[in-house]
Amino acid sequence: MGIVDRSEPMKATASQGRPIVRMRGVRKAFGPRVILEGLDLDVGAGEKVALIGPSGSGKTTILRLLIGLTEPDAGTIEIDGQYLWHSSRGGTLERADEAHARQVRRCVGMVFQQFNLFPHMTALQNVHEPMEQVLRLKRPEAKERARALLARVGLGEHVDKRPSQLSGGQQQRVAIARSLGLQPKLMLFDEVTSALDPELVGEVLGVLRELAHETDMTMLIVTHEIRFAADIADRVLVFDAGRVVEDGSPEIVLKDPSHPRTRQFLRAILER
Amino acid sequence: MAGESTFVYLPYLMGGVVTTLQITALAMLLALPVSFLLALGRMSSFAPARWGAGFVIELFRGTSAVVQLFWAFYVLPFFGVELSPLAAGVLVLGLNEGSYFSEVVRASLKSIVAGQREAAVALHLPRFYTFRRIVLPQALPIMVPPFGNAAVLMLKFTALTSLVTIQELSFRAGLLRSNLGVSSDIYGVVLAIYFALAVGMASLVWLAERAVNRWAGREVIPWRELTSRRASPAPKWAFRR
Ligand SMILES: Nc1ncnc2c1ncn2[C@@H]1O[C@H](COP(=O)(O)OP(=O)(O)O)[C@@H](O)[C@H]1O
Ligand SMILES: [Mg+2]
């Protein structure tokens, strides 16, 4: 860290519409290593935002903060108008309990780089059991919806297979269906194609593309697939050393970045 | 002839076998929930639960089981707790094994990769469901082989309970030897009996392993495929994952 000049960080807060994500002054450190410091970030409801940046810059950490896997050291996070870790009593913020955070983050879904499917369950069970647990659906209805979701991601014929019987691309599509089953308002995608063989990347990006075009779900997508980002995102954020260094439409950020370091970074990943 | 007397006293020895098996089964049955409670205690986010579980584990692992047996049977009555020999033996052996085995349980539960718990959190799954349906089915198959190991050890460990007047197999063999002078071949027979019991136990463990794997949703080679000669020569321990 520290290659980039620390003057005037870009404020990633100017977004249209009602924000579904509002991060203010967020700090996160692991031991002595400060990963995020004074991070402000807004994402408007329905926006498709691509988050790009070098490895180790804290992109995963942001997603983990948003779904409550990690707690910030300082600052506030609002999800759909509610504080994630705080409750506001008479104008002052108080530390809220675990139950509060659970309830606030309910509308957030996340798809992981390594899929994290439950290996002892079939594709169908992976999808319908969370629906039963979280949406309190009856089993037949949950199964029916799960089948429909799996069909939608092109896995209608594989519902009874275990993750180990599926390719990486198929597993990742099950993982996407599993998250979609809970009807999130905000979906977080963490480099969902990075663990895949090159020939399997397309099928997963295809699913994301379809979601981006056909739903009004907010999507925050961490990716190294720049062309894909340019294609589907309303907005691209370039992240470096814990700060947002570029924020704007794909045309502007990807074709005419304001920081030399961004240009260098973009060139590096475009050449891969 | 000595050989003759061995067979004469075989029914007497068999009575000891029944007692040995009974104590083994009861002690292992007690050890199982105890080990889970202690493991969960040690993994708790509530500090007193961690200390309490840690204390119990070190108490039983750190002191001699012989002394514990004496305590349970001869000292506890002074505090108004009268235990039958069987209860004292099962309690001490069960708590001992529970303390040791709790570390296996804890390690197995911890071996579930972080990504599985993180997926459960990211899917907003309730804690108990996560434990029962995601962690346990992946951890339990790991625990079965060491549990079988512990059960076979327990079989031999039960000889200790003769200290609290329980007439298990070794005790009866010793009695025969000292009272009647039937000696070397008695111990040969006792050795064979222990061996047969251990083999029987190992087979049970193998069946349990298959049952647990099947319950946990792992693929298990069908019985028919294992027994038919034509099928692939898959060794019986080859569980497909
Ligand atoms: N649990 C953790 N403990 C210690 N360091 C961590 C932890 N999680 C992430 N980090 C560190 O934080 C930095 C940012 O990580 P991450 O958010 O995963 O970056 P990115 O996703 O942009 O590659 C990395 O240097 C990583 O090593
Ligand atoms: Mg990452």
Automatic annotation (TrEMBL), chain B:
<dbReference type="InterPro" id="IPR035906">
    <property type="entry name" value="MetI-like_sf"/>
</dbReference>
<protein>
    <submittedName>
        <fullName>Ectoine/hydroxyectoine ABC transporter permease subunit EhuC</fullName>
    </submittedName>
</protein>
<feature type="transmembrane region" description="Helical">
    <location>
        <begin position="186"/>
        <end position="208"/>
    </location>
</feature>
<dbReference type="Pfam" id="PF00528">
    <property type="entry name" value="BPD_transp_1"/>
</dbReference>
<dbReference type="InterPro" id="IPR014342">
    <property type="entry name" value="Ectoine_EhuC"/>
</dbReference>
<keyword id="KW-0813">Transport</keyword>
<feature type="transmembrane region" description="Helical">
    <location>
        <begin position="77"/>
        <end position="96"/>
    </location>
</feature>
<keyword id="KW-1133">Transmembrane helix</keyword>
<feature type="domain" description="ABC transmembrane type-1">
    <location>
        <begin position="17"/>
        <end position="208"/>
    </location>
</feature>
<dbReference type="InterPro" id="IPR010065">
    <property type="entry name" value="AA_ABC_transptr_permease_3TM"/>
</dbReference>
<dbReference type="InterPro" id="IPR043429">
    <property type="entry name" value="ArtM/GltK/GlnP/TcyL/YhdX-like"/>
</dbReference>
<keyword id="KW-0029">Amino-acid transport</keyword>
<keyword id="KW-1003">Cell membrane</keyword>
<comment type="similarity">
    <text>Belongs to the binding-protein-dependent transport system permease family. HisMQ subfamily.</text>
</comment>
<feature type="transmembrane region" description="Helical">
    <location>
        <begin position="12"/>
        <end position="39"/>
    </location>
</feature>
<keyword id="KW-0472">Membrane</keyword>
<dbReference type="InterPro" id="IPR000515">
    <property type="entry name" value="MetI-like"/>
</dbReference>
<keyword id="KW-0812">Transmembrane</keyword>
